[in-house]
Specification:
- By secondary structure, the protein is mostly helical.
- The chain has a domain of about 100 residues.
- About 60% of the residues lie in helices and about 0% in strands.
- It contains seven helices and no strands.
- The longest helix has 28 residues.
Length: about 140
């Protein structure tokens, strides 16, 4: 999330600046230039993922499609405004998990050649990661 906040992710816009090979458009939607803001908030694929994730926790009104801003940080900040501390903690975990899952799916499309249109595969990844993140920490009996 530090890389996202500081716009340091290796998206197409950064690859182009360095003269590295890169796809012409976002590999998830093939509709726009890929930036981290686009990838995590305005990409139609990602918006569907966010809606599905947030709908499951009755927070679908906070999904990026409800906001006109193309900035992940601005969306995250507005999502956190006006909620109590426990809700904010839970919502932040969900947002981090969602962003992580979208980024992992992006990388699998880029480097492993999987189909980008499979939203269900991202949702399975979210569910699997959520289970892992929810496991209790092992007790150290040493």
């Amino acid at each position: 999330m530090w890389l996202v906040a500081h716009n340091r992710c290796w998206t197409t816009d950064h690859l182009a600046k360095r003269g590295s090979p890169h796809p012409g458009h976002c590999p998830l939607c093939d509709q726009a230039d890929e930036t981290i803001g686009h990838l995590l908030t305005s990409c139609v694929f990602s918006r569907q993922v966010w809606f599905s994730i947030l709908h499951k926790v009755a927070a679908y009104r906070t999904s990026p499609h409800q906001h006109d801003n193309n900035s992940f940080d601005a969306w995250w900040t507005s999502t956190n405004s006006g909620v109590d501390d426990q809700t904010k903690k839970d919502l932040n975990s969900i947002i981090i998990l969602g962003a992580w899952s979208i980024w992992n799916h992006h990388n699998r499309c880029m480097f492993d050649g999987i189909q980008s249109s499979l939203i269900s595969s991202v949702l399975v990844l979210v569910k699997d990661e959520f289970v892992l993140w929810s496991l209790p920490e092992p007790v150290n009996n040493a």
